[in-house]
């Protein structure tokens, strides 16, 4: 299992950040490893992601939706892999948003799969999570962050 935690303060209201991060059509604007939105509905989506030179599809469903503060997506990827992505948004006390992000990736095959996952993915998820949050911050503070 690989877990990534990242947080950032964004100078934009919680509701505006929520509208952006929960709109699958906006993933291309801020998620660095996002390549394509294959399909989406209010509580499901399929996307193509890119890591270590390879594209792969993940099918997600929205397991928790407590707008505008908490969402959890659960996904299935290649080779029976599983992923969870969680967003927690709160007022940062200055009229902006504290955005806490968590991603967990589980590969099959027990300890052997975990070793393979570390070898394939390494420290990339944390680097990409932080880069995505920085892109979201810039989008919300300087671009059109409204959904």
Please tag this protein with its features:
7 strands, 44% strand, alpha+beta, 4 helices, seven-stranded antiparallel sheet, 147 residues
Question: How many helices?
Answer: 4
Radius of gyration: 15 Å
First-last Cα distance: 33 Å
What sort of overall outline do the alpha carbons produce when their principal axes are compared? globular
Structural class: alpha+beta
Secondary-structure element series: EHHEEEEEEHH
Report the sheet-strand fraction.
35-45%
Strand line-up in the sheet with most strands: 1-7-6-5-4-3-2
- Quick one: biggest sheet? 7 strands, antiparallel
Total number of strands:
7
Mean pLDDT: 87
Give the low-confidence spans: none
Helix content: 25-40%
Please write out the topology:
Elements: E1 2-10, H1 14-21, H2 27-30, E2 34-41, E3 44-51, E4 54-66, E5 70-76, E6 82-91, E7 97-106, H3 110-121, H4 124-142
Antiparallel strand pairs: 1-7, 2-3, 3-4, 4-5, 5-6, 6-7
